Amino acid sequence: LALARRLPPHVVIHSLHPAIAQTQEKHERFEGPQKYLFTYILQPLAKLLGFMQSEEDAPKTQIHVSTHPSVQAVSGRYYSSLSPPLVKCGKQAEDCG
């Protein structure tokens, strides 16, 4: 992340995927074949691949990156539910994913 290189070392910058959560609102947007495609094909596939999370799980990566001390020791990383931050990986914090 270019911003992390431009700021002083004591400033921590991370990039986070905003998470895609399953909500009822998404179902109400579609009608007919679109609703069927979304409900029975795209949504289950997204959940299976880890792209869609429950409403309870969606904010976990953001909260973890914002609050965990070992993640705050490094800067300029990208995190998502598919590539969550590693803590206690047995290496220095800057070498953990």
Task: Describe how the helices and strands are arranged.
Blueprint: H1 2-6, E1 14-16, E2 20-21, H2 24-29, H3 32-49, E3 52-53, H4 60-67, E4 77-79
Radius of gyration: 17 Å
The stretches of 5 or more residues where confidence is low (pLDDT under 50) are none
User: Would you tell me the structural class of the helices and strands?
Assistant: alpha/beta
Q: What is the number of beta strands?
A: 4
Described by strand count, sense and barrel closure, the largest sheet is:
2 strands, parallel
Descriptive account of the structure:
By secondary structure, the protein is of the alpha/beta class. It contains 4 helices and 4 strands, in the order αββααβαβ. It is elongated. The protein starts with a helix and ends in an 18-residue tail after the last strand.
Features:
97 residues, alpha/beta, two-stranded parallel ribbon, 4 strands, 38% helix
Summarize this, please?
By secondary structure, this protein is an alpha/beta fold. Helices cover 38% and strands 10% of the residues.
